[in-house]
Amino acid sequence: MLLKIYPQNIDERQINKVVETLTCGGKIIYPTDTIYGLGCDIHNKKAVEQIARLKGKDPEKANFSFICSDLSHLSDYTKPINNSIFKLIKRHLPGPFTFILEASNNVPAAMVSRRKTVGIRIPDNLITLEIVRRLGHPVVSTTVPDEDEISGYTTDPEVLYEKFKKLVDIVIDGGAGGNMPSTVVDCTSGEPLIIRQGKGLVDW
Fold first, then answer.
1. What is the dihedral sign for C-alpha 110, 152, 163, 121?
2. Cα angle value 30/76/12 (rounded, 5°)
3. Which residue of 61, 86, 128, 135 is most buried, as measured by CB atoms within 10 A?
4. Which is nearest to 137 in space by CA: 98, 168, 111?
5. Phi/psi at 85 (5° precision)
6. Calpha distance 121→79 (Å, rounded)
7. What is the CB neighbour count within 10 angstroms for residue 162?
């Protein structure tokens, strides 16, 4: 299903349809403040494994991040962080960043890396944030697989729908996406370290 949602006038019924799909184990492609993402409910192990296979990854080694709706999720899904790291995260989220933090015991096993870490995203995108709020917990965040590495990521949701309509349940058309992924910052060693430079520029 291709579902058009306008960020300036979000339709509650459409959001509820997406949430119902996620709750039932469905997979979605959704807009962010960077490129379009591929996701599911982080608590549905089967759906997480299906997304790993779509990405051509071993489910036990996938290391997916997830999208939160606000910073309150930090205390739910990560171990306590020091004040300077919290201030850094607060300064940059919502925004085009993924912060790698130590995972708490609340993170489903399928979402925890072998290093016992987890990537946290809060994109500056009203559609996706509203979906997570209504769902009540995070959704998986990973890039949509793209065979054409030369031209970059697919930005047109209608093209994404044609490519993935048999593999996912909903493609959300929230307008043209970007072609640069998030900047990834590893905060697990005490000193933040950029491990992938993407769209976001870190304000130290």
1. positive
2. 35
3. 128
4. 111
5. -65, -40
6. 16
7. 13
Tokens of 34: 């960077």
Q: Would residue 152 be called left, alpha or beta, if left means φ above 0 and alpha means ψ between -120 and 50 degrees?
A: left
Residues 6+ apart with CB under 8 A from 165: 1, 2, 171
Predicted pLDDT at 152: 64
Residue 175 has pLDDT above 90, yes or no: yes
Secondary structure of the chain as H, E, C letters: CEEECCCCCCCHHHHHHHHHHHHCCCCEEECCCCCCEEECECCCHHHHHHHHHHCCCCHHHCCCEEECCCCHHHHHHECCCCHHHHHHHHHHCCCCEEEEEEECCCCCHHHCCCCCEEEEECCCCHHHHHHHHHHCCCEEEEECCCCCCCCCCCCCHHHHHHHHCCCCCEEEECCCCCCCCCEEEECCCCCCEEEECCCCCCCC
State the pLDDT at residue 148: 58
Exposure b/e, 45-58, CB count within 10 A at least 16 = b: bebbbbbbebbebe
> What is the distance between the alpha carbons of residues 56 and 54, in angstroms, rounded to a whole number?
5
Tell me which amino acid residue 144 is.
V
Tell me the torsion sign for CA atoms 47, 48, 49, 55.
positive
Q: How confident is the model at residue 159 (pLDDT cuts 50, 70, 90)?
A: very high
Share of the chain above pLDDT 70, in %: 97
